[in-house]
Amino acid sequence: QLPTGLYKKVLVILHDSVLPYMNEPTLMMDFLTVAYGVGGAISLLALNGLFILIHQHNLEYPDFYKKLYNLLDPSVYHVKYRARFFHLTNLFLSSSHLPAYLVAAFIKRLSRLALTAPPEALLMIIPFICNLFWRHPACRVLVHRPRGPADMSEDPYVMEEEEPSKSRALESSLWEIQSLQNHYHPDVAKAAAVLNQSLSEMEDDISGLLELSAYELFDKEVKKKATDVPLEFEQVRGLFGKKNDIFAEHFSLD
């Protein structure tokens, strides 16, 4: 039993400072699978080590995607290890052999959580979702349904369902991203509008967006060159600004 702080420190360095130097890295299977089931930041950090065991040492983890799906909660857009988590999630969802219902469930859950996410996270997650559509064309039915439900309660997608296969994601639409087209941040609204167009022929590289911070976003806006905006207006005449108003005959602003 490790203290939480030490638990996190071990998991941060385990994948590159411990596993490569072990004669039998598979001895860490139990430790990592238990850590993956803890939840929160500890589960996110356990992903690195699990990825190595699955990818290089043939670890079979039947409920892996179910647990990864349930790690998606509102905190994933705010945690310190967000970049690491989405980098690995991108790798795990890169296989073209994944069933459409599973990928659709991830797309819907990410989209639903995006409704309350900060702008810097949205600028990363929208291209991420577009990449999932590019890899898995069967999920594009979510985009091709032009109108979402009249009321959120009518959406067939079941957000609370822990099993992706029972979430009914493929029966839904991507109204969440459509609503982000009216986002207060212009860059987010522009990114969300991409789904109105045909998808690009190649995946977008999201590596540069994984660690985008609110400070960088604000700094970018501040450094934009201001342009003079031409305005048309009528010069104010009279008390209430109307040319032929009776008040204009008796009152002057001079």
TrEMBL record:
Transmembrane segments: 31-54, 85-107
Keywords for the protein's UniProt record, in alphabetical order: Membrane, Transmembrane, Transmembrane helix
Single GO cellular component term: small-subunit processome
The keyword RNA-binding belongs to this UniProt entry's keyword annotation: no
Residues forming coiled coils: none
Protein name listed in UniProt: NOC4L protein
Listed Pfam families: CBF (PF03914)
Presence of keyword Acyltransferase: no
Alphabetical GO biological process terms: ribosome biogenesis
Family: Belongs to the CBF/MAK21 family.
